[in-house]
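Margin note from the TA: students keep mixing up input and output lines. Inputs are the sequences; the output is the structure of the whole complex. Example:
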Amino acid sequence: AQSVTQPDIHITVSEGASLELRCNYSYGATPYLFWYVQSPGQGLQLLLKYFSGDTLVQGIKGFEAEFKRSQSSFNLRKPSVHWSDAAEYFCAVVSGGGADGLTFGKGTHLIIQP
Amino acid sequence: KAGVTQTPRYLIKTRGQQVTLSCSPISGHRSVSWYQQTPGQGLQFLFEYFSETQRNKGNFPGRFSGRQFSNSRSEMNVSTLELGDSALYLCASSLGPVRTGAGTEAFFGQGTRLTVV
């Protein structure tokens, strides 16, 4: 079965600093990969997705992610964070042709220090 | 274009009761998926409907069921509620089943917060 690991439960970053959130997946074939963000009391907003092609994908709000097949990783990055980026971030995977819907990581809680 | 609409936003139910949650997908989207979010288990897939047919189901007991109507709106039902069913239930819509690839990413509603007392 596919699985997603987000090793960092909490991350604290100073406003204006760069950010990298880690995501590792376990799946034999090339999966479809997503990053979502959730603000308190809200649903999930899609930041970006990877299906195929260029391994560096650009998303909304200045985020980008890089797919590395050799490391089974799909890390999310942002060069300069803003206080409004404070939220919960989820990495998700779905297997093409699979039957389990989206499989999510446990999430990383991002805290922004002034 | 309106997003995914879930109603109600908040519900309080008593153990043993049943509950029905509603989800209206984005116009033109034919696939609806449901997820349960709890602090302990995180986000877990419940089931997915496409063209009024359940395509797959997660590892949940039979007390959890759903259906999809011809206009793609979906409902999920939980019978004989237990305290552990307290959660945020999220609905997601997509053009087609997400696992089929490009163009079928899932867009989520704001969720229904269910509290079982």
